[in-house]
Prior knowledge:
The protein is α/β, with parallel strands linked by helices. It has 15 helices and 15 strands. Helix 9 packs across helix 13. It is globular and about 65 Å long. 45% of the residues are buried.
Amino acid sequence: MKVLYVCHIANRYGANRSLIEMLIELIPLGISPHVVVPKQDSLLSDLEDNKIPFSITPIDWWVEPTDSRRSTRQIEEFLSQSPSHELLEIAAKCKPDLVHTNSGVTAEGFHLARHLQLPHIWHLREMGELDYGLSFSYDKAACVEILLSSSACICNSQATQKAYFGDIPPTNCIVLHNPVRPPSPPLNQRRLRRDKIQLLTMGHMSKFKGHHHAISALATLLRRGVHCSLTIVGGGLGEYRDYCVQLSKELKVEHLITFAGDVSEPWSYFQDADIFLHCATNEAFGRVTVEAILARCPVVARASGGTPEIITNRENGFLFNDPDEIPQLIQQVTQTPNLTAITENGYQQAVERFDPAFHAKKVRDLYTSIARHPS
C-alpha cells in the first residue's frame, strides 16, 4: 500500500520523530511511504538515512495563535479550498492509496484526499490551544466535524482525544500512544548524586512547556541548601528564552543553568542527569518523558495532559500538581529508598508499552481496515 504522509513542520520535534519510528516499522509490513515536508530542515537527514522518499512543498496551517487571532473565518471558505498545484503533482507521481496527515494543525492532506477521493487519516499529536496556544482559524465545532468526516483519527493520548472530541470518543477515533525506541545499547542505571543534583528539562522552549518553573524550583532548592544545577535542552521562541535567561539572573542562578539548545540525540543528556523534570502545563503525550524513563532516569512530571497515562505516581515516576510542589518532591526523590526499583520498573513497562513494532502493526491494521471498508 502506498501512503502519502503530510508533515506540518520539518524539524526533529516529537511528532516527526514518532513518524520516523513508525515508518521504519511500517515499511517491512508492506507500506510504501512518501513524506511531504514544508521546507528543508533537520527531518530530511532522518528521511535520507532511512531511505524514505520525500518531497518539499509549502504546507499551510488551519490554526493560528489564539492571542493574535482577529476573527473566525467562515467554514464555507475552508470547504471551497483546493489542494495546491505542487501537492497535486507530488500525488500524481507517487500515486498514493491513502493520505495520512501527521498533525492536527494542517488540513492540506484533507484537501488532497478529498480532491482525489482517497481515504484520509488525521494523526492528532497535539491539543492545540492547551499545549501550543493554537486555535482553529474557523469555527471549532465545524472543524471537529471535518476531522470526523475523514476515514479515521489517531490520537496520541486519551487527553488529546478529549481535547478535540470531549468525553465521548467517536467511533472512528482510536488512541495510540506514540512509539519510542529505547537507546541501543540500553543505558545503565546510574547512582543518584545527592551531593550535587543534576536536573534536566527538555522540550521546545515555550511558556506552555514550563521551563520557568524548573528555574524557579532550582532557586528554591538552593535556598534550602540543596546543591543542584539545571540543563535546559530545546530550541524555540527567542522571546521566551530571553525571559528564562532574565529570570535566572533575577533569581541569581544563571551560573548553574546550561541552555543547550536543540540537540541531535537526547540520550547523553539523560545519562548525565540525576532527575528529569517535565513542567509542561498540558502535554498531549510527552515523548521526552518516555525517553527519560527508557534512559533509566528518575522522572518528576506534572500530572496533566497525557502525562498520567505514562506515569503512575511512585510506581514508575513521580507526579506533581502544582509547580510549587517541585522542590519538595525533588528532595523526596533523592531520599526514596526504592528509587532504583522504580526507575527499572518504568524502563521495563516503557519498552513494552511504547514498542514501535506494536504501534506500526496497529497502524497497518487500520490502513487495511480502511482499504476494505472505505468511507
